[in-house]
Design brief:
With 488 residues, this protein is of the alpha/beta class. It folds into two domains: 60-257 and 292-316 and 328-341 and 444-486, Glycosidases (TIM Barrel), CATH 3.20.20.80; 346-441, no CATH class. The protein is 34% helix and 22% strand. The chain contains 16 helices and 24 strands. The strands form five sheets. Strands 1, 15, 16, 19, 20, 21, 22 and 23 form an eight-stranded antiparallel sheet that branches. Strands 2-3-8-9-10-11-14-24 form an eight-stranded parallel β-barrel, surrounded by six helices. A two-stranded antiparallel ribbon has the order 5-6. Helix 1 packs across helix 13. The structure holds 2-acetamido-2-deoxy-beta-D-glucopyranose (2 copies). Keywords: Signal. One of its GO terms (cellular component) is endomembrane system.
């Protein structure tokens, strides 16, 4: 049994259980794998594509990017699982005295696709499927600090930005937009014009926000400083939320990158010994790979955002920002908690926790039917993390799609390990002998269900429900497998 990648004091091996390769391939990816072979056929059948939603009350927003274009077909096959679809098509640039929107549906077929979504459709068993709202993402691209300053302090510019966006929305007939920028938390006043313009045409405004992060333990001076910085960032993110909640219909919180490409910190008492590695750990220079989502983190974000959004009274808000808005926008505001549909792969080495030095991975018992072939055609010797070790990062990790994960599983036949309580899986593999090991975290049905259940649990609280509840934002459909979408 391999070791948990989580740090000390966390669940021991008894809370992990190793699942066989066959099981993981079957339960997570069967649907995705078969649809790869039958790319041109419609893969939906009554019990998968059209199965009812697990949580019908939770609104679902799905992002679709041009660089994983299979997302378009997946959205159509599972369209009843979505309320809002956001194609990632537009950028907003600061140009001299004004603003310019760039982008468009990449091809005619993309334009036809979104127009089909906006119409009711019929399912294969004759049921009517509701239209899906199409709200493309518009992101402020390449904005300098000065561009933000000019925008924030100049009312003429609020109108200019609103106008260029509205031109596109009206011309293309979208149902609204998803607005993203590096500093949306600082823009509540500046987005009022845009919000008013959208709402006066019955369009929706979704704002993308950074998540708040756990402050972590302060075990020394350095970690105290880091904790203070995180706290400050969290405060900054949340401070204008009452105003933002007022101008937006939904707030899409980016709770998909919990661990992210840089991995996460290790607390110094996890690794013993006095060598260079222990020293580096003590300085906070060693990081470990980790799962992408945890239901606890999602819960913390939802509660924090809801609490922050009601801190000031309605009347005071309007007065502060001279907002001339209907208060219904406050009560209809819903938080969409981000959930990842991609995995992460991290280049790793193994450190022995008691000895504090690097150790080599150990071979897994060979498969019984392994043929005796040597040379390039020889099957790979599977290796795993040695007993008593933990994986640490060699370099930054990268996001990886469900199809890439299926290919890795087929090529490497790894042993997958389930993480509790996240419900996520991971496995280790080496591409070619001597090139170094990777650890791959897989988003699974269970991890998505955990997130949905958490949101439902929190929103069943009357207080939060009175604020309009919450839903989920999926980044992004093209990286997903059908298995994941079925579990929605
Ligand atoms: C505000 O922005 C407009 C449009 O770019 C510009 O013409 C005007 O000079 C700006 N006003 C101030 C005070 O900077
Ligand atoms: C279950 C859980 O939340 N585990 C950890 C996930 O990672 C975050 C931050 O990286 C930790 O704070 C959690 O304890």
């Amino acid at each position: 049994m391999a070791d948990s990648p989580r740090s000390g004091g966390l669940p021991g091996p008894s809370l992990l259980h190793v699942v066989s390769l066959a099981l993981i391939v079957l339960s997570l990816f069967t649907a995705g794998a078969t649809s790869q072979q039958a790319d041109n056929q419609k893969p939906i059948g009554a019990e998968d594509g059209q199965s009812a939603r697990q949580q019908p009350a939770l609104p679902v927003l799905g992002y679709v990017t041009p660089w994983n274009s299979r997302g378009k077909q997946l959205v159509e096959d599972y369209r009843h699982k979505f309320d809002i679809v956001s194609p990632v098509w537009y950028t907003i640039h600061a140009m001299g005295d004004g603003y310019e929107v760039r982008g468009a549906p990449p091809a005619d077929e993309d334009a036809e696709w979104y127009k089909r979504l906006q119409q009711p459709a019929e399912s294969t068993d004759g049921k009517t499927l509701q239209p899906v709202k199409v709200a493309p993402r518009f992101i402020l691209d390449g904005w300098s600090e000065d561009d933000y300053r000019q925008f924030i302090f100049n009312e003429t510019r609020w109108q200019l930005l609103s106008d260029v966006v509205m031109d596109v929305v009206q011309e293309m007939g979208y149902e609204g937009i998803v607005f993203e920028s590096g500093a949306t938390h600082a823009l509540p006043g500046s987005l009022v014009k845009l919000s008013e313009a959208l709402h006066s045409h019955s369009k929706i405004l979704v704002l993308v926000m950074q998540p708040v992060r756990p402050v972590g333990d302060s075990f020394d001076e350095l970690s105290e400083k880091r904790a203070a910085l995180i706290q400050e960032t969290n405060h900054m993110i949340l401070q204008n939320l009452p105003y933002l909640a007022m101008i937006a219909d939904y707030i899409s919180i980016m709770t998909y990158d919990m661990t992210g490409p840089g991995g996460r910190e290790i607390s110094p008492d996890v690794i013993a010994g006095e060598g260079k590695i222990a020293e580096a750990v003590a300085k906070g220079n060693v990081r470990e790979p980790g799962p992408n989502t945890s239901a606890d983190w999602v819960r913390e974000n939802l509660v924090n955002f809801v609490e922050a959004s009601v801190e000031a009274g309605d009347a005071k808000l309007k007065q502060d920002w001279s907002l001339n808005l209907e208060s219904q926008h406050v009560s209809s505001c819903k938080f969409l908690l981000g959930a990842p549909l991609y995995g992460y792969k991290y280049p790793v080495v193994y450190v022995h926790k008691a000895l504090g030095r690097l150790v080599e991975p150990t071979p897994v018992d060979p498969l019984p039917d392994r043929p005796l072939i040597t040379g390039a055609a020889a099957p790979k010797v599977r290796k795993k993390a040695p007993e008593g070790s933990m994986a640490i990062l060699r370099e930054r990790g990268e996001a990886i799609t469900a199809n890439e994960i299926i290919d890795l599983i087929n090529a490497n036949k790894p042993e997958a390990i389930r993480l509790e309580p996240e419900g996520e899986y991971y496995f280790d593999y080496e591409d070619k002998p001597g090139t170094g090991f990777w650890r791959v975290f897989i988003p699974a049905k269970d991890s998505l269900s955990n997130v949905l259940n958490t949101i439902k649990e929190v929103t069943e609280d009357d207080f939060i429900n009175s604020l309009g509840g919450a839903g989920v934002a999926l980044w992004e459909i093209g990286q997903s497998s059908e298995g994941l979408l079925q579990s929605l």
